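Revision sheet: structure tokens.
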Amino acid sequence: MATIKYIGRTTDFRGKTLWEIVGNLKNFGVGRVVVRSMFERYPEPSFMKILKVEALPNEEPYRKVRVTVEKTFRGRKCPNPVQVESVSYKADYRLLSKHEEETYCKLVERQEKIFPREIELPPLLRDFVTRETGKPAPMIPIKLKVGRENHYRLANEGERPTVSVTMNIGQPASPSLYANCEL
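Predicted:
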């Protein structure tokens, strides 16, 4: 039996390019909803409602199109229209059927995650810092990356966090290696 060996880059894209989708629709799909398959991995809905379509000059090997959309990413609607141009050639889009639009596009309120202001140090570092400073339980402040799509923040003074962050190694593969360690 012969085996098949694939050569070259693989892709996770599933679907059609925006050019293929809007080119086959009446009025170039204005008013219709398109979903990028890459964003379907999130539990919240991510979709784009087409507002305007413009063709771009043919640049080989891809056909690109400039689409102005009303974008909703992870259940949060962008306040201004967004232009999709540089990623329009990717074969990762699918058109929602009209009867599917209403149920798919329901916005679900995302729960905000609240992280504690400080966490404990990893065990080895904790022991080292305790010896150096004399503090029995040293803590380190958390720094969160700021971004427009974030749904998490640090707890305010006196506020209870919704996420617990602990420093431990979990269940070791070989417990006998850690028999004499204080965890």
